[in-house]
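Sorry to interrupt, but I need a hand with the structure work. Go ahead and set the record down below:
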Amino acid sequence: MGMKNNIKIINKKHFLKNINFIALKNIFFFVSIIYLIYCLKNNLNNISLEIDLDFFKFHIIFSFAFCFLSIFFNAYAWVSILSWLGFRGNTSKLISHYILTNSLKYVPGGIWHFVERFNYLKIRANEYLSFYALILEPYIMLSCSLMFVSLGAFKFSSPFFLFFLIPSIFLNKKLIYPILFKLEKLKKRSIELFNIPNSKSEVYSNFKLKSFFPIKSLILEMLFILTKFIGFMICFSIFNNNIQNNFVLFIVFCLSWTIGLIVPAAPGGLGVFEASYIFLIPNDFNQSSIIETLIYFRVLATIADLILSSPFLLKIILKKS
């Protein structure tokens, strides 16, 4: 019996290793786009993007402002992650570089903002700290978003939502290393691109974790998600006079944003976030107004990224010319 159980475990591990996760994510991306097109087609006659700018101009301005603010919280969270891992250098330039390179996430491939940050950071720190800080950031973002989703346990009296707390359990001094090594395996293509030697001993020796939990990073990432959601809700209020079930909107927002973060085939979660939101939102909400909200929010959030990144993009253009 023991031998049979061991063979089953080995077979399962072999099966998991052979799964092409990149292909699965690409399939999910294309399915999301097809579903989004289907929803747009069904609601085409009901969608109207024309608004009274005189009446709603402050809605647009404030939504745009919160999208702006969320980028700064995101940058400060990244620097806080670096500090937690042991970085002791000047962080002010890192914050500005993070913001300036943020628009590169929209470039097909979804890794070029990581590449630019890695090249910039490895000059100021060691390559291990630079790489693992980059792959840990999305995990902390995901953990914070799912922590918000877990609040559904209180709203809906369902313990199922508590499972969303699992990723955050590993964010501590004792359990973070297995997570880093697991993320490393998932990012094999990135390791080849960055040319990082695979050495666990080097990772342990190069990291000097500042505290048991990355509390500051978690708070800043939560503020990033909250400001992003406020920007979304302001857009939502343009197309919906009676805003009810704000909590449901928030839970669906966090879950959809998490799905968009996980799927790398989508630049900036483009299409995946929107399709997930439409799919997950209850039928109580008008689908056409949800689509209108998503379009406005996506445009404002993207413009905010591009404006803040414009000095960096201009520099690249001038170098090529």
Summary: The CA atoms of residues 44 and 184 lie 43 Å apart. DSSP finds 15 helices and no strands in the chain.
